[in-house]
Amino acid sequence: EVQLVESGGGLVKPGGSLRLSCVTSEFLFSDSTMNWVRQAPGKGLEWVASISSGSAYIFYGDSVKGRFTISRDNAKNSLYLDMNSLRADDTAIYYCASRGVVYQLDYWGHGTLVIVSS
Amino acid sequence: SYVLTQAPSVSVAPGQTAKITCGGNDIGTKGVHWYQQKSGQAPILVVYDDSDRPSGIPERFSGSISGNTATLTISMVEVGDEADYYCQVWDSSSGHVFGTGTKVSVL
Description:
Helix content of chain B: under 10%
Number of strands of chain B: 10
Strand content of chain B: over 45%
Number of strands of chain A: 11
Oligomer: heterodimer
Low-confidence stretches of chain B: none
Number of helices of chain B: 0
Mean pLDDT of chain A: 95
Shape of chain B: globular
Largest sheet of chain B: 6 strands, mixed
Largest interface: A-B, 22 and 24 residues
Radius of gyration of chain A: 13 Å
Low-confidence stretches of chain A: none
Structural class of chain A: mainly beta
């Protein structure tokens, strides 16, 4: 069974930083483009960032560009999201998700909650 | 930036058919994917590439495209189908774009 497990969420003050992690098991993490998607309380899904299998191609959503950094360690089957200059509107559940060959997000983790508040 | 538009809500009686639409410019050229998200849970993929189903997804879930509108059809709706449904495409300028979401209520 494919599993993705996020961690690292929590309460952080505006302007602060946080690092999220996503560890996967069993499927070919090293061959997969990986993504972070977030969902603010009571709101819809918002794509945050993507990173290709070899880290050559990295893309960000406009709302996080310049503040967030996506990275991965294929040896550890792990995906990361470094979040800086956090704002109240970054408050959300953050999901990691793998991308399939036709750009579908085929497997999702359970999410980790980030709350930005003073 | 690319925008996908969905109706906020759809209500359907058990055993009937629910149709959830997703509108976007030239959507037929992009490959549309659909996700089901039940309350308090992560999304799951129910249809990909316009009309294909992942393994384990019932045949009651089907997808189609006509013009600038994609449609997710749930046949013989069950109480357990009550959830939010999101469409999604990849756009070369905007990245992964999600629709605004449709809440399906089973009366």
